[in-house]
Amino acid sequence: MAALRTISFDGVIVGGGGAGLRASLQMAQSGFKTAVISKVFPTRSHTVSAQGGITCAIASSDPDDDWRWHMYDTVKGADYIGDQDAIEYMCSVGPEAIYELEHMGLPFSRTEEGRIYQRPFGGQSKNYGKGGQAARTCAAADRTGHALLHTLYQGNIKNQTVFLNEWYATDLVKNQDGAVVGVIAICIETGETVYVKSKATVLATGGAGRIYASTTNAHINTGDGIGMALRAGFPVQDIEMWQFHPTGIAGAGTLVTEGCRGEGGYLINKDGERFMERYAPNAKDLAGRDVVARSMVKEILEGRGCGPNGDYVYLKLDHLGEEVLESRLPGICELSRTFAHVDPTKEPVPVVPTCHYMMGGIPTNVHGQALNVDQNGEDAIIPGLYACGEVACVSVHGANRLGGNSLLDLVVFGRASGLFIEKALREGIELRDASETDLEQAMSRLDKVNNSSGGEKAGDLRKELQNTMQNYFGVFRNGPLMQQGIVKLADLRARIENAELSDKSMVFNTARIEVLELQNLLEVAEATAITAEERKESRGAHARDDFDSRDDENWLCHSVYFAPDKRVSKRGVNFEPKTVETFQPTIRSY
Amino acid sequence: MLQVSIYRYNPETDAEPYMQDVQVDTGGKDLMVLDVMELIKAEDATVVYRRSCREGVCGSDGVNMNGINGLACVTPLSKAVRKNKLVLRPLPGLPVIRDLVVDMSLFYAQYEKVQPYLQNHTPAPAIERLQTPEEREKLDGLYECILCACCSTACPSFWWNPERFIGPAGLLQAYRFLADTRDTATEERLARLDDPFSVFRCHGIQNCVNVCPKGLNPTRAIGHIRSMLLSRAT
User: Fold this and answer.
1) Short-list A395, A124, A132, CA closest to A259
2) What confidence tens digit (pLDDT) does each residue in B182-233 have?
3) What CATH code is carried by the domain that includes residue B54?
4) What is the value of ipTM here, to two decimals?
5) Chain B contact present for A567, CB below 8 A
6) What is the DSSP string of B146-179?
């Protein structure tokens, strides 16, 4: 093997979105040598697309608000397979993390009192579901993700974080003890491959919504961290749990925020009926996203969809008035005009449930330490590896994430990972160096892609993969259909592993990156498919026609998937919060 | 068939850049320019450009379309195409790395020069710093910048002095922090901008305003900075 240049850091963060930048900020402030590897310039990461806000009990809109109410909503929203210790941590630490962002300069919208503006979002309640709708989502108009990501990037500039921008991490480097000691990465501009060595490697690579044909996710959301973890033999958890956002613009897939409904918008069918009143009499259009998405699909399937093909419903906003729309939802007005050719101040917006968020991911504890599960079913910390944000499964979202909780998750656990690693580095981390064989192992996939010839085009294979996931693993699932999908994916695996890289050049070769990304998409898709077929119940976002109710006796647990032998096992859910009483599973209704 | 002429340059194989003509079947649809680029790449994987969110918020795909800078993902063909022809070039004025990908180092360096982060020398309160809706409104039209570089690369003053003139994008952010009631470093910020080049190389040409895909107005922000600098001098 040709000599591989090595660069060394105390901590390396893979991914320059909200989670990665919050972790790197923490570590850069501590003075440790920290680098962020990002395949795009950081402010191009998908956090930038988050619109409606960041949910947190800062008691601005309601002075009596309580993080425990937020915790209750989150546990219920998760359909009871969110870990209660992690949810407790997120909801209680949240306010501190929000104030830090504000002090850093995040331009939140304001109330008349000068405090941070909060809007109602789905699944929110006061007083443990008994006090009516809460308004708990802190917002910067409908550009909260943009404001948050830019603020974090600016904070990192201030603290002189090292950025390896437009570098692409291909695989984890594992030493002989099974510890992670860095990553193999390509500098996209020059094409050089480098070993980036680190005592702590943080995966903050975000989601993988591009496994579906119709998605709100950016082109770059290809599950790179999940692919890397699975190939290294580490498991993923609850990966069958995919959120379909109720309001993707029909056709384009671009998101319009749940904040539209928070501000008073509602869904109607072709008869003009506000149909959510039938499915969720109390919360109506602000029920959990899984509930709303399923209701919309039922309306469409039962012939009450809108448009010439009856394949979408309408989001009605015009009654809110031009002033509210232009001040609170300016980005939505812009997106609706561009992608739906509709002026929301005058006409309703055509919307359809669209793949949006990966609830599952790499299992971690609240410090971001990645977990393996040993032969006895016990958790085992993976030395050197951390994960935070969408790629991680702490798990605070369980089977269904509440709107506004993803930004809180990435800030709180990006910060927690940074804090923990800072402490660990201070105490001293000793990991054995990677051997030549370890590096060869980590390089093997890239070598194969670089030497490929005669295979199919990556673009065609990607389309086929996305259509398979869309048709066989969508909002409603059933066993026989999923089994067919699994067969198709197995066939795709052989073809995708041999996909041809027709352009072998070095400088800014995005074709090479796309082949590598496609292989990650396949890893995520297959893990999703096999685990979804295995979970024989309906819970949260996982809705099966053949097992249409929740089965707490057998499935009140996390699923854990291992790629090498395509095996699914179970892992217990944490029901032991430290400062509040356990929220016991009950029937979930809105 | 749409006639597309696309700028090609790969430093490994091409002695110099050239324009490649490609015919694209759009199916008669009013696609976005990015969709057309994707169709071209599906046939020829060696065509290179940046893209990510495909909804106009990440700022990756700033390109020059029939002579006008903009974001490919939110520019419909009906707006860009003239006489069934679309000419795609990299953003002007910056070094080309390959095809439509430019080296944005200078652009980012000018952004960093304005210290684009809030500076407040008073101790932080236990909650947020209060700001009235009216004070916050001053940041509208400033904070929304997506750093796509459409404006700065459309600016003749930036073409001439990219190392010394901060350019519209950087100056928009300079003013975003000058205008923020929570920032206490106004004097230091102005002192750093007070030279003949950083701000005063703006000649009010307003190309920046015309091309900004987010509808922002850097010229107005630069005007505010000028006034602040001038009143500081007196």
Assistant:
1) A124
2) 999 999 999 999 999 999 999 999 999 999 999 999 999 999 999 999 998 7
3) 3.10.20.30
4) 0.98
5) no
6) ----TTGGG-HHHHH-TTTS-HHHHHHHHHHHHT
Is A289 noted as a catalytic residue in this protein?
Answer: yes
B136 in A contact zone (CB under 8 Å): yes
Domain limits for position B139 = 105-233
Closest CA to A408 of A208, A65, A49, A136: A136
Task: Judge: B58–A99 Cβ closer than 8 Å, yes or no.
Answer: no
Taking an 8 Å cut-off on Cβ atoms, the answer to whether A508 and B97 are in contact is yes
Strand intervals (E) in A398-514: 476-477
- For A110, which of B55, B136, B183 is closest by C-beta distance? B136
Please indicate if any CB of chain B lies within 8 Å of the CB of A463.
no
A429 alpha carbon, distance to own chain's centre: 29
* Rounded-to-integer distance, Cα A480 and Cα A345, Å: 45
Q: Angle, nearest 10°, between helix axes B218-233 and B186-193?
A: 100
- Among B38, B73, B102, identify where a domain stops: B102
Q: Which residue of B has its CA nearest to A142?
A: B144
CA distances from A350 to A49, A51, A203, A252 (A): 20, 18, 36, 10
Instruction: Tell me: do B168 and B183 sit in the same domain.
Output: yes
| pTM greater than 0.95 | yes
What is the distance of C-alpha A62 from the center of its chain?
29
Q: Which of B106, B67, B49, B84 is nearest to B211 (CA)?
A: B67
Q: Phi-psi region for residue A377, left (φ > 0), alpha (ψ -120 to 50) or beta?
A: left
Exactly one of A136, A210, A231, A289 is catalytic; name it. A289
Is B52 in Cβ contact with A43 (below 8 Å)? no
Low-confidence ranges of chain A (pLDDT < 50): 1
| A384 Cβ contact partners less than 8 Å away, ≥ 6 residues apart | A179, A180, A181, A198, A199, A200, A201, A429, A431
| DSSP summary character for residue B73 | G
**Chain A residues 67-106 within an 8 A CB cutoff of chain B:** 98-99, 102-105
Structure confidence by residue, pLDDT tens digits, B108-137: 999 999 999 999 999 999 999 999 999 999
Q: Write out chain B residues lying below 8 Å of A150, CB-based.
A: 143
Q: Into how many domains does chain B fold?
A: 2
Residue B178 shares a structural domain with residue B224: yes
At a CB cut-off of 8 Å and minimum separation 6, what does A531 contact?
A: A238, A239, A240, A360, A559, A561, A568
**Beta pairing, strands A558-562 & A567-571:** antiparallel
B226, B118: one domain: yes
Distances from the Cα of A214 to the Cα of A250, A301, A358, B122, angstroms: 9, 18, 14, 48
CATH of the domain at B179: 1.10.1060.10
State yes or no: cis peptide before A395, omega within 30 of 0.
Answer: yes
Q: Are residues B91 and B6 both part of a single domain?
A: yes
- DSSP states of A265-297 as a string? -EEE-TT---THHHH-TTTGGGS-HHHHHHHHH
